[in-house]
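Title: Comparing notes on inverse folding

I've been comparing how different people in this forum approach sequence design from structure. To keep things fair, I'm posting one structure and asking everyone to reply with a full sequence. Here's the target:
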């Protein structure tokens, strides 16, 4: 089992999650984060830390559509362990529905 980052993280990227993960298994794209399912130890610590409530266990139906995306993009994006600068308009995007089409597959750049 693993935890999965889902749609509500898109353009939000508060990154509170990365600071608490004991095994540093978050990977960063331009406007989204994913969890590497092969590294996640299923501790659940990140789930309540996410202000956007975007993290669910893969057994939760809300995670289902995002399981493949997390696994695939974790292999393409750089690892992230420290909270960076969040987008200036993150609050504005926090609870917007239907953000899936806005997901950028570009990796995060410093
Ligand atoms: S805290 Fe939540 S919204 Fe922020 S980057 Fe992590 S998963 Fe995405
Ligand atoms: S469940 Fe634990 S190991 Fe998995 S991503 Fe969250 S904090 Fe990291």
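Reply #1:
Here's my take.
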């Amino acid at each position: 089992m693993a935890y999965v980052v889902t749609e509500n993280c898109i353009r939000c990227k508060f990154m509170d999650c990365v600071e608490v993960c004991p095994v540093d298994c978050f990977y960063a794209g331009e406007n989204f984060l994913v969890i590497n399912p092969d590294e996640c130890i299923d501790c659940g610590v990140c789930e309540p830390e996410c202000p956007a409530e975007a993290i669910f266990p893969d057994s939760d139906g809300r995670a289902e559509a995002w399981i493949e995306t997390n696994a695939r993009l974790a292999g393409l994006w750089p690892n992230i362990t420290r909270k960076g600068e969040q987008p200036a308009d993150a609050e504005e995007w926090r609870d917007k529905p239907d953000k899936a089409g806005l997901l950028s597959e570009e990796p995060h750049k410093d």
